[in-house]
Design brief:
Helix 12 packs parallel to helix 14. The chain is built from 16 helices and 15 strands.
Length: 396
């Protein structure tokens, strides 16, 4: 028996007037997921604890079977694990986003989705000019980087930039232990990067500048029991973004690199499906994460969100289903980690739908419930604790 977890990040949404009060998940053409729902079980799950921010870090930790209220320490150290950045017990890691500002307002959380190749020289320059023996910068993927601060603070309030576009900087600066040092670091980064020749070219081309570093979600390295120790299964993770790869590394999963996987709309969907099937020839379990629906939600793009969901259905789910005909019996769980509504362009707390399928037998009880947000109101199977849902995937 093989086990598959597919996470279409942020795919859940709200009814939209532009879609005749349907959600993107309802409007998208998803024949493969529809077919699985006909014989599978559709339900609802509260992935992240209600008293926690529904970030992809805590949410995916829960979907992997780890209680975030027990194991979560912050996004920074999870992404640091993905990048294999050494972390001593005294070290605190921050996610450090490369963002756009006009000097008073946070304009773009991703600096126009700057490429990894464009961002790396800027981060290396910032580390050279702003780094110290206790504060170091490490380049990551696109706009996502790491600040490691030895003996740094963890008891301070920070704000994720993707939730705060258009807000004054003064309203969202870090607050608490170490706030003066962190604010100085942010302002120094603007002074360093704003007039950089790269950003002058960006402005000339009509693109947002990559002119500010924004540290947030600090924490010390979490200690997770291995996935094998917890579930008795070997596994692999397929993802383009460091927060997911970091969780996989902390859990002892194989990190599978897929050529062309970008964490954006142009990711290699079919490649993720093919590499998932290949991974199941070595492992009992594979976890496939797709970031594109979440990015579409943050961008406020209905069309891109529908397109991402349809690509997931056709090129990820479809490729896996085709490949599994030649591998083994399998159980498949498809579940968003949270909702990222087009209307708010941010994550919201609340239950999301899930779909559980078994290739050997029907799991459905009662009428057919489609895999979309209607499950939140209509499902008889509701999980109030997201970290327990994976037990349904592994149930005999």
């Amino acid at each position: 028996m093989k086990y598959i977890l597919i996470v279409p990040d942020g795919a859940a949404d709200e009814p939209l007037p532009e879609l005749d009060q349907r959600t993107p998940l309802q409007a998208a053409r998803t024949p493969n997921l529809d077919r699985l729902a006909e014989s599978g079980r559709v339900g609802a799950v509260q992935v992240t604890p209600l008293d926690m921010y529904p970030g992809s870090d805590a949410a995916n930790m829960a979907l992997l079977g780890y209680d975030p209220s027990r194991y979560y320490t912050g996004r920074g150290p999870i992404e640091a694990a993905a990048m294999q950045i050494p972390m001593e017990p005294r070290d605190v890691a921050f996610r450090c986003s490369l963002v756009s500002t006009d000097g008073t307002t946070l304009l773009d959380y991703s600096a126009g989705h700057i490429t990894t190749e464009e961002a790396r020289p800027l981060i290396e320059l910032a580390d050279e000019k702003l780094g110290t023996h206790t504060m170091r910068l490490f380049p990551g993927v696109s706009y996502r980087h790491i600040l490691r601060w030895t003996d740094g603070p963890v008891d301070l309030q920070t704000h994720p930039p993707h939730e705060n576009m258009g807000k004054p900087l003064d309203a969202i600066y870090p607050h608490g232990d170490g706030e003066e040092r962190l604010r100085q670091f942010i302002e120094d980064s603007v002074n360093l990067l704003d007039d950089h020749p790269f950003n002058k070219r960006r402005r000339d081309e009509g693109k947002p500048p990559a002119n500010m570093l924004w540290p947030w979600s600090p924490g010390r390295a979490p200690q997770l029991p291995s996935f094998f120790q917890k579930h008795g299964l070997t596994g692999a993770v397929i993802a383009a973004v460091d927060v997911i790869r970091g969780l996989g590394r902390l859990a002892g999963l194989e990190i599978v690199d897929v050529p062309g996987a970008t964490g954006y709309f142009d990711t290699n969907y079919e490649g993720k499906g093919r590499y998932a099937v290949n991974a199941l020839q070595r492992h009992d379990f594979v976890w496939v994460h797709i970031e594109a629906p979440d990015e579409a939600g943050h961008a406020g793009s209905i069309d891109e969100k529908i397109r991402a969901i349809e690509n997931i259905d056709r090129l990820v789910v479809g490729t896996i289903l085709d490949g599994m005909r030649h591998v083994d019996d399998f159980r498949l769980l498809c579940v968003p980690d949270h909702a990222t509504p087009i209307r708010t362009r941010g994550h919201v707390i609340g239950p999301v739908p899930y779909l559980l399928y078994d290739s050997r037998r029907h799991l459905r009880t009662g009428g057919i419930l489609p895999f979309d947000e209607r499950a939140v109101q209509e499902a008889s199977s509701i999980f109030p604790e997201g970290y327990r849902l994976i037990g349904e995937l592994f149930a005999s």
